[in-house]
Write a structure and sequence with these properties.
- Strands 2-1-9-8-7 form a five-stranded antiparallel sheet, sandwiched between helices. The chain has a five-stranded antiparallel sheet with strand order 13-14-18-17-16, with no helix packed on it.
- 36% of the residues lie in helices and 25% in strands.
- Strand 8 and strand 9 (255-264) form a beta hairpin.
- It has ten helices and 18 strands.
- The chain starts with a helix and ends with a helix.
- It is of the alpha+beta class and 418 residues long.
- The protein is elongated and about 120 Å long.
- It has helices at residues 2-31, 68-78, 89-93, 112-120, 125-136, 139-152, 175-185, 189-195, 272-287, 383-417, and strands at residues 40-45, 51-55, 84-86, 109-111, 199-202, 211-214, 231-239, 243-252, 255-264, 266-267, 270-271, 288-294, 299-304, 314-319, 323-328, 338-342, 355-363, 366-374.
Length: 418
């Protein structure tokens, strides 16, 4: 009986160890870097620009309709949302068969905002051309503006030949360039709003009845299998040559991420542009977080100012701004090393708020810094002035005495000589 009890305890212990090992394996698997089926992808932190995942991110790829994020941002930068646009014959007739459209009509009038909704929600190519002609005067001129914009962003591996992503061997980008474009686009709040709509409703126009569309981006449509609640905006793309494409933005716990998938496939009825976007985003949220390292006005260091008055010479240096850093959970806190660099020859007088140095952290290749400012005014001590004045007075007295005594002696000698 006793031996049976021992065997039972050993079995229970073995089972517990087995369960723990399985759990540890599961946790480790969550932290492993994802492996994409899609041809290219990148994941970056929007605040720092740090790359958290990359696959073929600098290889030239076809962007398909993700092109439209540049069309949209140029429209937002050159137009008012309520500006009226009249659809031309060329706008419609230049769209090849098989490309999506909103069935715009020649002479139809829509606002820029309505065209942007059709562009970013329904991915309407005729809407892209209508905006291009309105802004550039012609599609060709607008495409030149698109290439100028990416050049201004410092992108050398991107070139556009049309406004909506129609396949062309000279119409290309990279996952990295597309992430940088998106980083720029989301600085515009109207872009965020429009690219984050799950649907749009266009009222009747002078040539067409009311229209309603559901977003082509399944990740932002609630109550669907692909819905991802942290996604804030995005733009899909597809051509047979480009494959499934998606550029998107997500936000959770102060961490904003930009994700790009290019050359995706459909597997088991689900596009990898959706499934692998979610995989990358979850990978980042499980392994990274924003950590507060310094709060604004925290005391970082103290100084004793030598030429200051007794009641102001002890000076605290405060953090001018907070420092929040992107931190990999694998890093321990002793790896967050604070570096303090003070200005040369710090001396009174000092005004409250004067910048006296820099405090910085270097974490995972990124430097986070803030200025160090004076906590209070430091007055210059008059003691040194008094000492200098007294010393100068003594020297003057000595000089006067020496001159007077030397002259007196000279006069005595001259008298005796006479």
């Amino acid at each position: 009986m006793k031996q049976l009890l021992i065997h039972k305890k050993i079995s229970i212990l073995f089972l517990i160890l087995l369960l723990l090992s399985i759990n540890f394996s599961f946790v480790f698997a969550q932290s492993e870097e994802p492996k994409l089926v899609s041809q290219a992808g990148i994941l970056i932190d929007n605040k720092t620009g740090k790359v958290l995942y990359s696959k073929n991110a600098t290889e030239k790829m076809y962007p398909a309709s993700t092109t439209k994020i540049i069309t949209a941002i140029l429209a937002l930068e050159h137009c008012n949302l309520n500006d009226k646009v009249t659809v031309s014959y060329d706008t419609i007739m230049s769209i090849p068969d098989g490309y999506s459209s909103a069935s715009l009509q020649v002479g139809e009038e829509l606002t820029v905002e309505q065209l942007l909704q059709l562009l970013l929600v329904h991915s309407a190519n005729d809407s892209a051309n209508a905006l291009a002609e309105h802004i550039g005067g012609s599609v060709e001129s607008f495409v030149s503006m698109m290439n100028t914009k990416v050049h201004e962003l410092g992108l050398t591996n991107t070139h556009f030949t049309n406004a909506f992503g129609m396949h062309d061997e000279n119409h290309y980008t990279t996952a990295q360039d597309l992430a940088i474009m998106m980083k720029y686009c989301i600085t515009n709040e109207d872009f965020r709003k429009l690219a984050g709509q799950a649907s749009c409703a266009i009222p009747a126009t002078n040539r067409h009845g009311p229209r309603k569309y559901i977003s082509t981006n399944a990740l932002i449509i609630p109550n669907t299998d692909s819905y991802y609640p942290h996604l804030t905006c995005g733009k899909t793309g597809y051509t047979s040559q480009a494959g499934d494409c998606l550029v998107s933005c997500s936000y959770q716990n102060d961490l904003e991420l930009i994700c790009v998938i290019l050359g995706g496939k459909t597997m088991n009825g689900i596009s990898t542009r959706f499934s692998e976007t979610k995989t990358l985003l979850e990978y980042a949220y499980q392994n990274y977080s924003i950590k507060s390292l310094l709060n604004q006005h925290d005391v970082v260091s103290t100084l004793q100012i030598k030429n200051a008055t007794k009641d102001t010479k002890n000076l605290e240096l405060l953090a001018d701004t907070s420092i929040q850093a992107l931190v990999n959970h694998s890093l321990s806190e002793d790896q967050y090393i604070l570096d303090i660099k003070l200005n040369d020859k710090i001396q009174a007088p000092i005004e409250q708020g004067d910048i006296l140095g820099i405090a910085s952290y270097s974490i995972d290749g990124i430097e986070y810094r803030t200025n160090l400012i004076a906590s209070h005014a430091v007055k210059k001590s008059k003691m040194l002035t008094y000492i200098i004045e007294i010393s100068a007075g003594i020297l003057i007295l000595i000089l006067i005495y020496w001159i007077f005594f030397h002259k007196k002696k000279t006069n005595v000698y001259e008298f005796r000589g006479y």
